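Notes from the 1:1 (GR / supervisor)

We went over the backlog. Supervisor wanted to see one worked example end to end before approving the batch request, so GR pasted a single chain during the call. The sequence is below; no edits were made to it. Supervisor asked that the structure be written out right there so they could see what the output format looks like.
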Amino acid sequence: MGPRPGAGRMTALARALPAVAFAVMGLTVAAGMWLARHDGRELGLPFPPFIGRLAPQVTAWAIVAAALFALVVWAAPRLLSPGLPAPAFAAVAYALTLALRLALGASSGGTGQWSRVFDTTGFEGPNEYVAALPALRYGPGFFLDRFAELVPALPVHAAGHPPGLLLAMDTFGITTPGRLAALCIAGGALVAPLAYAIGRELLDERRARVAGLLTATAPSVLLFGATSADALFAVLGLLAAWPLACARLRPRVAGAVLLAIGSLFAWSLLAIGAWAALLAWRRRGWKDMLALGLLCGGVLLAVHALFAAVTGFDPIGTLRATEQVYRFGIASERPYWFWLPGSPTAFLLMLGLPVAWLALRALTAGDDAALAIFAVIAVAAVAGFTKAEVERIWLPFAPLVCLAAAPALQDRHLRPVLGLLAVHALAWELLWNTVW
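Structure output shown during the call:
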């Protein structure tokens, strides 16, 4: 039986996908810059589709960051060696991610940059979580019971999320910019070993380690992971994704519980459940996808119902209030027609050109993990609930794109790819004020 008519044409089109996608992303960047500068339209950001502005600045920490990047590039093949035990690789991945985030974060403005974004006297601090803590002055009981009503009065980032992080900050005394920054930096660095752990479920050991290294050095993961609460949300998402990627029931139940808990911190983490369900469909068929979806949905409803019964928290009212805040906020100045391609463009390019290219090649090849995460990204873009700032907001998706990219990276290209990611991250930090 010969090939189907048109099969060769479809194969050629599929192979051209990465080049076509990059062309579209290039046109999107060019259009955004032109409209912002020549037509008097900022599209909701000064330099669309990227958040931030050009602001060159350098400190001696840049030397430390460059040395650490060079160390990672040099050591990468050795880190893939089977002689290095899995726990040791996970520990090294964490240490490298933590060191890179600290050094890179201080490269343009010194160590004060680590907590600057949370400083309530600064530019962005009044919109962040420390500024929202006074809402808990009457205690967590009143705060949770009245959260939906409080949303319109909260700083924008707290208003855009469920109460989980604020409640945790109040419980553990994380009441200063420095303490919150320490939590975000130290906790958020877990993304690399967690990406590796998920990779061990989906890939062979070597490719799983490649996924961990790509996550550790991806520019957006470093630039926004060190100075935003989204780094913590990414960790919560990966903690759920790890057991949800398993085929066994017990880990899946644990993953569903972790996903429900994570949804009390960030609504966007529900997309991790969609990723896991799509992955199940690709690997084991639609029945398994349906079973996993029902499990996640049932556990989610049960956890939220229990939490509501105990605390008075109203998840439906909170979602409605959050939607109203978003609708009438800065998002109203960001036209859907531009940010439909603009959001995926900013997200993928800030992950690093090699990572984006490799992940798109994996998508072309029909890779399960690539199909799952690109479907999630497509739905997120079409839904339009998040327009711009996705380099930070979609941070939980970043390690999953790195997982998709890992199988497409040939061993001989490992060092050049990591080197390109290092140059991108360091140059962007020194030349661009990302706000976070």
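Supervisor's comment: Residues 65 and 391 are 21 Å apart (CA to CA).
Batch request approved.
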